[in-house]
Task: structure prediction
Amino acid sequence: MTLLAEVREQFTISRPFAGHRIGMSLHLEPKTAVLLETLAAGGAEIVATGNHGSTQDDIVAFLREQGMTIFGTRDDTQQQHHENLLSVVAAQPDILLDNGADLVAMIAESGQSSHIIGGTEETSSGGYRLRAELADYVAFPVIVINDSPLTEMGDRHSVGQSVVESFMRITNLMVPGRRFVVAGYGWCGRGIAQYLRALGGKVAVVEVDEIKAFEAALDGYRVANVLDLAEWGEVFITATGHPQVLGTDFFEVVADGAMLVNCGHFSWEIDVLALRDLATDSTVIDTAIERIDLPGDRHITLLADGRMVNLAGREAKGNSIESMDLGFLLQVLSLARIATAAETLESGAQPVPDTINREIARRMLATMGADR
Result:
């Protein structure tokens, strides 16, 4: 991760996080370890946990050996994951690196945010929460990384690649000729649809935003309501950031043998609880593959229990090294802005400062050798 390596060397001299404790909730995998090492090189004390179902235990062990306080294991239950988040909050970090706004929500609930100077939010899902249910409770600046145009450009390629690669690796199925329904035509959904079609898949798009739906139609995709596509689709992939995109109404009419896949941050996009309430039986077929029998002699296949397929599935790799190098550079420079100049930022959710976006774009162009 070339970009982070350069900044890490600079941070060992400037030490922007000296005297600060960073509390993190983010997927704990190898690329995240490089991020945390970079923050620690800048003087930060790290207290962190992963996200439910995606933690890699060897990475946890490695980070603990580096002197970081890390909570959680891959096999944690939802309750244990909740307790891990509480442990991070109890350590009283003054800077947050959040994923899905879970840490911010807990701090808001406790009413003890006076020691927080600011933080970052990795996801669009967390950005939605910060601007909606948590809007009145965030009295410090939170930079939303996914609001960066660089992240949007990267997501179109990196998420599309990693989700389609994960689907093929977990299922060992062909893409060509198979009918896919992609729910959501944001940057992630666009990328998934693009990669599926490039590999020969037949792709339809579900999008509630009229302008994005229009864009999908101009891009040549079939665009319809998810219930209208329930009997057509063979594989349904959610990429919206919103809850219960696939719910009971859908489960009651979806075609026999359909496969359900989620790539959104929260597992709520597929209403797994409602699916299990409706089920007549279930069988684990293989790692991250479960057959769920439904009334009327139908069944569906659920991947990774409805969690992020590219991080919670078998042999998870997540997004590409290059895209995460870019994304995590956005993180470290945004966190450095919080640590050194939080008073120059407004309270609440906000996009990555333009100066940071442009600096990273220049670094990326140089690293890519785009002028060759």
The domain at 2-150+319-368 is CATH 3.40.50.1480 (Rossmann fold). The longest strand covers residues 281-286. Residues 31 and 324 are 7 Å apart (CA to CA). The chain has two domains: 2-150+319-368, 153-312.
